[in-house]
Amino acid sequence: MFNSLGQSIIDFLISLVTWLPGLALGVILHEYAHGYIAYRNGDPTAKSYGRLTINPMAHIDLFGSILLPLILLLLNSGIVFGYAKPVPINPSYFKNYRKGIRYTSLAGPVTNLIVAFTIGLLYGLFFYLVIRISGGLIDNGSMGFRVFTIFNQLFMNTIYINIFLAIFNFIPIPPLDGSKILASFLPYQAMQRYLSIGRFGFIFIFIFIFFIGRIKIIFIVVDFLYNACTWWQYLLV
Predict the structure, then answer these.
(1) Count of alpha carbons within 13 Å of 117, Cβ hemisphere only?
(2) Residue pLDDT, tens place only, 68-105
(3) Which residues are the active-site residues?
(4) Short-list 81, 82, 84, CA closest to 54
(5) Taking the model in full, what pTM does it have?
(6) Burial degree of 104 (CB within 10 A; 0-12, 13-18, 19+)
């Protein structure tokens, strides 16, 4: 019993170490990108509120950044998800209203894809160095193998979580980024009516998260993008 409890604690701690850094990196850079592009389009709101920074303390949300991921890990849900405090944006400052909304909304998920691809390159470098240094020989059960396994999982999880964050935010359910991108192409009145359902959007979002395991196309896209981010693996075959 105690051995099982101890192993469960170790597994949970390993999950924390291998999931949370990638999630934190993803949500912080996602929000920073929103604020930066809004600023470049004439909106100083994020800067004036001290949110145009990559300092984690400026973006961490108690529930979305800490409690929700911990709950999902404790439940062994298979999906680790979270979010940071949304960067404040005032579209009335935009030099071009539609382009400002469109590019500011695109900035977050596109940044997550860039992070995923960049981490994929670092993962390839890590894999190459491990093979080069060890000669491809790491004994199962050794300390080196355990460290390699943790770093390997950290890279994989960071890529996966950033791909998932990008895809999730592209979904056109207000107030997700995809809805604002879509709305920027609609006539003004249709845009306002569409975005107005954002106050009920979180209901639809939680329903979507509940049923996400049944939406196979999402996992097909995630796997495709993961393989694109780790293209170097095909050179090892």
Answers:
(1) 10
(2) 888 888 877 667 778 889 999 999 999 999 999 999 99
(3) 31
(4) 84
(5) 0.90
(6) buried
